[in-house]
């Protein structure tokens, strides 16, 4: 808990200090011309006054030099900071008159225009910051020639093009950040003339060619980041030894290759060495003669380095942060002579480390003290012995190894330990005794082991407990509530638990309770409305859903699917106004369509599949809202009547005209667990098109949309309005009594991947517009009354016969080989059709993943005030947290909706 506090205090301090500098009062009196100029400027800005904290206070009754964001010298405006004011639209020409400006900060507005060239006339401009302004066009090169310029920040303008000029007179430039823009071309040799340059960030641009040798003349350089460009220098073409003042070197994600030269580690003032995500190979050099005290951060992760990590790496005595993950290292000097006093963070994950390095057992007592240690995804078979003597260890990740047998008792006695991840090993028991322990653990992840017997309940301080995917086979102890007073996340999912859910669970104050995939029976306790996620899916629960959701209900996800629940739909659920996911599928609920949910505008997933809902789905008096609805599955009920097109028109989420790309289904469970940079989590997408693909847990990213009304008694015609669902991916209306024609508007559903209209009474021709659905990979129109020629298109030619079988008068390929009409109607191949109806989505595992945020960090003094470092630190800490608790990533990393779907092919 203390660490958590530290972190927030530390971040707050930074914010306060920034505020303090913003708030320095200004004495100078405003020139009248300047005042009216600024007021006219304000007129030209389009901004949202409820999000403005500066512009709205500008008015003629006060001196303009006292306005927020404005500073003057001798009555002239010299500093203008109107960042984050939600300004939209271009910079007006009248801005050109503010030539006295020395500092201009427009960050984080939506300018959406090219950069005006008149800034080049601002002869005393020292600082120009246009970060995140959505600029486009070509940046006027002459602005770089303003001789007074010290800082230029054009980062995060992904459409802004430009190139670097020859730097002939820019002796004063200290800070140049073009990251995440579209600047391109070569780095001019004259960059070596920027003698004062201390930070250069060109990452994520499109520069090419080699890194000029003249960078060796940039002796003030603190920070250099050149990631994600196309530089092709071999790394030793640069005389690194000349860079005597280089403090921060980041060559993240380039195509640098070869081995890492020792001279890099001996640069006298280098503090940060970041060579991650490149193609370095070979072994690390011995650090025999190096005893740098300044080098505090080394990141060599994501290369092809191999062999043992040399003991002499500890000659780098200032080392605080060492990342060697995702290489092929085979050993770490757990028993070497230990020089650095404190290693704050050591990441050795995703290597080939074995526990018996050098064959000798570590002299654990002399091992250096580590605060945060990540050893996941290695080949460890036992708990490393040196851990016993760690007195400062806060975070320990041993997940995804091959550790077997007992979890040793001493691990709970590491008093400093706050978070422990042992998931994905082969652990079977916990060494006793487990009572009277004084562990301070806040988070424990034991997921996916072979732990057996009773649920171990001894960590009363924990806020995060994940015991899922084990073989625990007890009942849930009646007094469970007493053990979990502060648990925010508690999962016993996928074990062999039986018996009832004890009433004391009501004392769990948590946010997330997941007891899914067990054999729990009995009734659902009445008290669970304080949770935000309740998942009881796949148990053997009976009785009705308690109708006791009160006005304080905070539920966002309610998943009770696949039980034996009977009775009615709980009317009080209308009190849960934050509901996002309701899954009651595969139960025996008997009721009419729950129109009362229509008032809950946050709803995005509604699954009532396989119950006994009956009657019409129109809600006459409520003009259906559900603007966020993405998934509605009402299949296998007794719903009937016509579907009114007007009731669908408010499902705006399905109508968003996205860029026309198909959704990407992802294997979340395995992919997310794979180690690597955050972007990897989004890397490999698998679409449902591949036949026979068995997907265990599929993460549906962003925007997955589905309507499944199949196997009810709906009749009448299919509403034309469905064609408006431009972002719909799956539509299943099969096995109903729909009549009339297939609406030609279906041709507008440009991202549709699966369309099933089989087993209805549809007549008429197949609208030729369907041939325009280029992403359609599954189509079933069988067993209707359709007639005429099957449209010809590349897409249609890929569908099997079964897609069209059982219609009276369809002809043409693939049903009939040639184009002649009047051939005998092929028999309805119902068996065949069954087999190839590939993509049944099975709602076994819909859930919204769980959120859990805990702070992390330690103030490392002055580094905190170094802007670069702060940005980097943010990224790095998030990375660590995500590595240790991948579920968090899904919550924090993608703020959209997260739905997991278990999809299996039905045989
Ligand atoms: C202005 O900002 C507020 C708060 O973020 C938002 O609710 C409102 O919709 C915005 N107004 C406009 C016109 O964008
Ligand atoms: C990057 O530059 C190359 C030419 O150097 C060009 O072909 C490519 O389209 C550019 N990429 C982007 C994203 O602008
Ligand atoms: C570095 O600067 C010196 C003079 O200051 C110049 O002679 C030399 O050519 C420069 N080196 C490079 C590689 O540009
Ligand atoms: C736990 O500690 C209490 C006193 O603190 C003691 O009475 C009890 O016997 C201990 N239990 C076990 C099993 O050691
Ligand atoms: C579910 O409960 C019923 C009786 O209530 C029992 O017959 C059945 O075996 C149980 N199923 C499972 C999977 O426990
Ligand atoms: C909502 O909660 C209140 C108590 O907080 C309860 O009286 C009311 O009946 C609930 N609403 C419904 C529709 O059940
Ligand atoms: C629904 O819409 C109709 C017409 O569009 C309107 O007359 C009626 O008042 C609306 N009902 C509600 C509850 O908003
Ligand atoms: C298919 O789409 C194109 C434009 O995207 C349109 O011109 C054409 O008419 C469409 N074809 C049919 C049959 O609707």
TrEMBL record:
<dbReference type="InterPro" id="IPR003591">
    <property type="entry name" value="Leu-rich_rpt_typical-subtyp"/>
</dbReference>
<keyword id="KW-0812">Transmembrane</keyword>
<feature type="transmembrane region" description="Helical">
    <location>
        <begin position="845"/>
        <end position="866"/>
    </location>
</feature>
<keyword id="KW-0472">Membrane</keyword>
<keyword id="KW-0433">Leucine-rich repeat</keyword>
<dbReference type="Pfam" id="PF08263">
    <property type="entry name" value="LRRNT_2"/>
</dbReference>
<dbReference type="InterPro" id="IPR013210">
    <property type="entry name" value="LRR_N_plant-typ"/>
</dbReference>
<dbReference type="Pfam" id="PF00560">
    <property type="entry name" value="LRR_1"/>
</dbReference>
<comment type="similarity">
    <text>Belongs to the RLP family.</text>
</comment>
<keyword id="KW-1133">Transmembrane helix</keyword>
<dbReference type="InterPro" id="IPR046956">
    <property type="entry name" value="RLP23-like"/>
</dbReference>
<dbReference type="Pfam" id="PF13855">
    <property type="entry name" value="LRR_8"/>
</dbReference>
<feature type="domain" description="Leucine-rich repeat-containing N-terminal plant-type">
    <location>
        <begin position="32"/>
        <end position="73"/>
    </location>
</feature>
<keyword id="KW-0675">Receptor</keyword>
<feature type="signal peptide">
    <location>
        <begin position="1"/>
        <end position="19"/>
    </location>
</feature>
<dbReference type="InterPro" id="IPR001611">
    <property type="entry name" value="Leu-rich_rpt"/>
</dbReference>
<dbReference type="InterPro" id="IPR032675">
    <property type="entry name" value="LRR_dom_sf"/>
</dbReference>
<keyword id="KW-0677">Repeat</keyword>
<keyword id="KW-0732">Signal</keyword>
<keyword id="KW-0325">Glycoprotein</keyword>
<keyword id="KW-1003">Cell membrane</keyword>
<protein>
    <submittedName>
        <fullName>Receptor-like protein 12</fullName>
    </submittedName>
</protein>
